[in-house]
Q: What sequence folds into this?
């Protein structure tokens, strides 16, 4: 493997940090205030974001992390649509990502990152139900409950915080071991679980969430319906743990408060996004890992395709077509796809059409048509780039990806695809630069510096070397600043 693709051993082993010498109760004190001005007992937004980026850098190595661009673009757009109507300004941008886990749960990390289990999306019966849970989590982010809980632990007996900070400082020094990062989000979700938000904090997150839902055009009844379902599920599975109710206790008092706040308001005029049903189907497919799960899913999708109409029917047909493709039945998949396209247009259907194309040339043609229809879809952009690469058209792929990188400068996956094409074209300096951008955006700054240094060693152009020197200095300054931010929280 070319050295430009190698990931250096720099990074945070979060699993190790959380698993060694950590007490079971990294909890937010129950008396923590839930509203009002930010407490002095909290991490600064810069430190909180650094911690969140470190967890995400390691989390992308987690086998449960879903790196599907289409899914995470939809979830993040949904989260930011809600956050735009938060009653108070948020210190962090919201980024939502999916995790393959059938339990109905979601969890917030430091820095505005929110993880959503596949089970939560698959279990939602409307987009407003999913929005209700996300709005509640954003309420916690808005109040900086996680930052305050972590800071109070770091000021007391926060062995977990000290371990996390110590691991991050080692990573910033290039001394981490990324290979240890398995089950990261299982550990990270434990942070959320152990915080033990106070009753007041939960209630204020509900109230803020309801306001966000109303103003963003969702039905607040969706939050109540989902929480009722979760409460019933927790009763049926009492003692098993792992569900949303175990991390966010759903009391009768909370449900009554929601009912009172919804009652008397006019019914919301909701215009649901058809993509919800396609993303839901996609996550159901990802969640169904073994043959028995896939058979059950096929039965469910068959019923929905027969009994439902509109986007839900098309999404069910999309799911069935994907199962046919996985089973080695491309003819059946194409037939289902045509049925779905006759019902509803969606970028997910065009993405599947690219994959089902009869030849690399046909895939390139299908991807061009899809990109023309869906120029704001990261999933379609990904499909077009891969189709061009598979057809051996790396010049066209590199040119396309350079445009896409400008459209989505903060989506690291496109930088990695760009590096692949540049490397095959023999443009090694540019390939290293693209990989440096990929690692910079995923939080692995020492590895980014290494790629820039390799790029500099390969270039004989004075102006290119000067530009690379500037990037290297800027990244080293960021590393120094991050160390300075974190050192005060390190335990001796």
A:
């Amino acid at each position: 493997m070319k050295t430009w693709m190698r990931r250096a051993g720099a990074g945070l082993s979060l699993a190790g940090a959380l698993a060694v010498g950590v007490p079971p109760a990294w909890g937010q004190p129950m008396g923590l205030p839930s509203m009002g001005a930010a407490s002095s007992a909290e991490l600064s937004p810069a430190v909180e974001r650094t911690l969140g980026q470190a967890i995400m850098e390691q989390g992308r190595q987690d086998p449960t992390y879903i790196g599907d661009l289409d899914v995470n673009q939809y979830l993040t757009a949904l989260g930011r649509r809600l956050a735009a109507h938060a009653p108070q300004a948020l210190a962090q941008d919201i980024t939502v990502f999916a995790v393959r886990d059938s339990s109905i749960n979601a969890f917030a990390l430091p820095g505005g990152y929110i993880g959503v289990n596949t089970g939560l999306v698959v279990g939602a019966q409307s987009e407003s139900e999913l929005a209700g849970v996300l709005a509640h989590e954003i309420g916690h982010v808005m109040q900086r409950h996680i930052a305050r809980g972590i800071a109070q632990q770091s000021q007391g007996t926060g062995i977990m915080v000290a371990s996390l900070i110590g691991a991050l400082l080692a990573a910033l020094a290039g001394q981490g071991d990324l290979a240890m990062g398995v089950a990261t989000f299982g550990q990270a979700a434990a942070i959320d679980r152990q915080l033990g938000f106070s009753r007041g904090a939960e209630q204020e997150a509900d109230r803020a969430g309801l306001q966000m839902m109303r103003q963003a055009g969702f039905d607040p009844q969706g939050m109540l319906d989902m929480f009722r379902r979760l409460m019933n599920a927790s009763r049926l599975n009492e003692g098993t743990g792992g569900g949303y109710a175990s991390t966010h206790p759903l009391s009768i008092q909370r449900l009554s408060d929601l009912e009172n706040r919804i009652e008397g308001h006019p019914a919301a005029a909701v215009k649901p996004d058809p993509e919800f049903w396609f993303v839901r189907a996609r996550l159901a497919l990802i969640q169904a890992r073994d043959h028995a799960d896939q058979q059950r899913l096929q039965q469910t999708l068959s019923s929905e395709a027969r009994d439902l109409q509109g986007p839900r029917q098309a999404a069910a047909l999309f799911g069935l077509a994907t199962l046919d493709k996985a089973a080695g039945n491309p003819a059946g998949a194409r037939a289902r796809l045509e049925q779905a396209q006759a019902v509803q247009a969606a970028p997910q259907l065009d993405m599947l059409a690219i994959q089902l194309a009869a030849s690399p040339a046909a895939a390139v043609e299908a991807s061009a048509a899809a990109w023309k229809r869906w120029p704001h879809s990261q999933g379609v952009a990904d499909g077009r780039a891969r189709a061009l690469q598979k057809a051996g058209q790396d010049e066209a792929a590199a040119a396309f990806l350079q445009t896409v990188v400008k459209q989505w400068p903060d989506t690291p996956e496109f930088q990695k695809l760009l590096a692949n094409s540049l490397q095959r074209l023999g443009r090694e300096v540019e390939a290293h630069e693209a990989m440096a951008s990929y690692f910079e955006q995923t939080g692995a700054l020492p590895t980014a510096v290494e790629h820039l240094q390799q790029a500099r060693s390969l270039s004989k152009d004075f102006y290119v070397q000067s530009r690379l020197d500037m990037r290297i200095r800027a990244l080293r300054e960021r590393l120094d600043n991050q160390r300075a931010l974190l050192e005060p929280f390190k335990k001796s």
In short: The chain has two domains: 3-271, 393-492. Confidence is low (pLDDT under 50) at residues 6-41, 177-183, 236-242. The two ends are 41 Å apart (CA to CA).
